[in-house]
Amino acid sequence: MKKSLKYSSIAICLMAALSACQDNKSTTVQPESMNAQASKQLTAQDAEKFLADVEKETIALNLEGARAAWINANFITDDTDSLAAEANQKSTEAGVRFAMEAAKFDDVKVSADQRRKLNILKQSLVMPAPQDPAKSAELAQIGSELNSMYGKGTYTNKAGKKLSLGDMTSTMATSRNYDELLELWEGWRQVSPPMKSSFVRQSELANEGAKGLGYDDLGVMWRSNYDMSPNEFATELDRLWGQVKPLYDDLHCYVRSELGKKYGEDKVPQDQPIPAHLLGNMWAQSWGNIYDLVAPQDADPGYDVTKQLAKHGYDEMQMVKGAENFFTSLGFAPLPETFWKRSLFTKPADRDVVCHASAWDLDAKDDIRIKMCIQKTGEDFNVIHHELGHNFYQRAYQNQPVYYQGSANDGFHEAIGDTIALSVTPKYLKEIGLIDAIPDESKDIGLLLKMALDKVAFIPFGLLVDQWRWKVYSGEVTPENYNTAWWELREKYQGVGAPVERATDAFDPGAKYHVPGGVPYSRYFLAHIQQFEFHKALCDISGNTDPIHRCSIYNSKEAGKALNTVLEMGSSQPWQEAYKVLTGSEQMDATAILDYFAPLHTWLKDKNKGKQCGF
User: Fold this and answer.
1) Which residue in the list 57, 93, 208, 387 is annotated as catalytic?
2) What average pLDDT does the segment 324-351 reach?
3) Contacts of 144 (CB under 8 A, 6+ apart)
4) 145 noted as active-site residue
5) Active site at which residues (predicted)?
6) pLDDT of residue 351
7) Do residues 466 and 522 lie in contact, with contact meaning Cβ atoms separated by under 8 Å?
């Protein structure tokens, strides 16, 4: 499940969903410093005045925008749509202006702190607009059109029924009919070809905007946001993937074999990529929905969290209180009273709301909230722990300047939320009284396989989406080769292929929201790497002696202290500094994933003996 979070940083994401981060921008007021200094040589003193002016304006914009977005998400009407759009437009205009003005200080000698803040301003724009007003307006219009085309996309099936993406996604998760899955897979990809020309133009304009800010192209600009050179960042992602690949390869081999048994090896050849429509997900990005097809025998852990919640009388509020107790056990202060008064926990009976789970920080102080239509299920119990991870992060960095009120890099926020969820283990469930006994280790394989189908299977997809866009933005991949290059990367990294021959003028990348939505994707790859390293580090700090996949940091004040130190830093230091506080190293290390899934990997290797693996 994808969750949302709110950043209050100058990156000005008033409401940054995992699927889309809208760049904030502001009103038409020019920072005083820039008007006064336009005609003379800029200095570090001018930079300080400019940054102070921007900070004041940003604080006001963030509060206005967050309130408008909250009301819109909780009271969906034409009027609240309009109010939220107006607030977003103001923040969008401000973000463009701030970035352009910040670029004027590129050759000015300033302090390290000033340079960091100026760079954050420049890099806060995901789709930087050219300085030409007509082109800027055109880019904004294209973004709106692409979002609308995707959001309104439907497919009318052979039976004449009009299906939304939600309808098709649900069927893809549960159907085991090869032909039905293929029809839906092809059907959704009819939505994206009309987007192609707009995407091409969007890329041209955003590239022009990025060059206006001093970057070679938009991909270079995106890769410059990680406290290392763009080339170093790309190399680092490939290095991390290389660490995970042996585990992924064995998971892929096992899953392909089981799918061959289900559908026949004529449909799932054992020496070819897996057909993309058979993995339980419209984009084959996570495979957890086909767990029933590949689950080992006797994998049932012996308990069902959903049933245990009912048995112990948990209602929605008690589920949230239970998750809060996890954090207070680590030494964090309880959530403020306003959290309980202002959050949305259940779907109202009298109005439409956005039910997608999200964590909000409205004032960069104590007004933190979650918005969920909580279902009394084990899955939502996990999600609540994840969302509160965002809230406690947001509160921890509230004393930082507004520029630094965000995560150390854009993968950290999701990684922290998922790190907390990794501690929702059978050991933790027993400690809080939800289950009576911890299953023995023979039951771990099923739990680990189910998690690997979601988390390990996602990693190469998380890498390749931006790999493709970087090639597009650099000009290495041209429009006539969009689709060919896309499937080359899908096969290279995922070992997943199109189930039918695709036309060269198709636009299959556009079937994934983040591409027409203009949302960078590397953050999701990073989050999937970082969460396991954070979990391992915190378990070590807590004095854990269990296998890492059985560890929970619940009740560890030592782990809580280390975690809080990192959270309080926000984005004030290079992410490597935050990493070092927690892990002792400034370099990411994906071997923590191998440690976590070690029992499963041994099991997979045994199951794959005598099989032809690879793709």
Assistant:
1) 387
2) 95
3) none
4) no
5) 387 (proton acceptor 2), 387 (proton acceptor 1), 514 (proton donor 2), 514 (proton donor 1)
6) 85
7) yes
